[in-house]
Amino acid sequence: MVAQGILFFIAGYDTTSAALTHAIYFLSLHPECQQKLYEELKTCDEFTYEKLVHLKYLNAVINETLRLAPSFLRLFRVCVEDYPLGNTDSQINSITIPAGTFMTVSTYTLHRDPKYWDNPNDFLPERWIQPKHHPYAYMPFGGGPRYNHPGVYPDSPGFEPPTYGYS
Ligand code: HEM
């Protein structure tokens, strides 16, 4: 119980404070976004969970902040079965990740990959109003079959938990 309690403090404190610090930083660089967010916040009469999750621009700002500056820069996994990489299936170039291999996924790199994001290095909260990204191109809270992160707003507009299978 104590270990779980400590984990919650470590996992919950630095990640949240880094996210808030980065959000304020990006807003300071983009006063037009700051103004838009201010206008939206003025429409909210009480800052409860139920009301906050429906503030589209606030959630867009948070999602965009975590895209450009994910609090965890990478995820860690162990490969459970031999996994041939999809684009290396010719006999000459075939690469298979053997079961038991320790893997890391750089979310920082993925979140800025031009293959998945237009203007990847720009702070554009608007992209989250009607998001069209691949779910596995955005994983600030992790992803995969046991995805159930305690810090996530499940009903937040624009946030699509990446819960479907691998491909
Ligand atoms: C902006 C805020 C946060 C971010 C970006 C964040 C990010 C992450 C990431 C990337 C992981 C690894 C997930 C994976 O490997 O699939 C993780 C795990 C975890 N986080 Fe957070 N986190 C945040 C806030 C919180 C808060 C507020 C709590 C609790 C109060 C929390 C508790 C945990 C716990 C317990 C784990 C381990 C889950 C497991 O292994 O099953 N996090 N977090």
Write the layout of secondary structure elements.
Blueprint: H1 2-29, H2 31-42, H3 49-52, H4 56-68, E1 74-78, E2 83-84, E3 96-97, E4 102-106, H5 107-110
Antiparallel strand pairs: 1-4, 2-3
Helix pairs in contact: 1-4, 2-4
Protoporphyrin IX containing FE is lined by residues 7-8, 11-12, 15-16, 19, 66, 71-72, 75, 140-142, 149-151.
Q: Would you count the extended β strands for me?
A: 4
| Strand arrangement, major sheet | 1-4
| Overall geometric form | globular
Report the span from N to C terminus. 37 Å
Structural class: mainly alpha
Give a short account of the largest sheet: 2 strands, antiparallel
Question: Can you list the ligands bound to this structure?
Answer: protoporphyrin IX containing FE
Low-confidence stretches: 162-167
Please write the string of helix (H) and strand (E) elements: HHHHEEEEH
What fraction strand? 5-15%
Task: Please give the radius of gyration in angstroms.
Answer: 18 Å
Number of discrete helical segments: 5
Mean pLDDT: 87
Helicity, in percent? 25-40%
Keywords: Endoplasmic reticulum, Heme, Iron, Membrane, Metal-binding, Microsome, Monooxygenase, Oxidoreductase
Cofactor: heme
Pfam families: p450
Membrane topology: Peripheral membrane protein
